[in-house]
Amino acid sequence: MKLWSIMGNSQRLDGGAMFGNAPRAMWSRWIAPDEENRIPLACRALLASPLNGKTVLFETGIGAFFEPKMRERFGVVEDRHVLLDSLAKAGFSHEDVDVVVLSHLHFDHAGGLLSAWREGEAPSLLFPNATYVVGAEHWARANDPHARDRASFIPELAPLLQASGRLEVVQGEHSRALGDAVRFHYSQGHTPGLMLAEITGAAGADGQPHGGLVFCADLIPGRPWVHVPITMGYDRYPELIIDEKRAFLEDKLARNVHLYFTHDPDCALAQVTRDAKGKFGTTHEVAELSARPLAA
Question: What φ, ψ does residue 270 adopt, rounded to 5°?
Answer without folding.
Answer: -155, 160
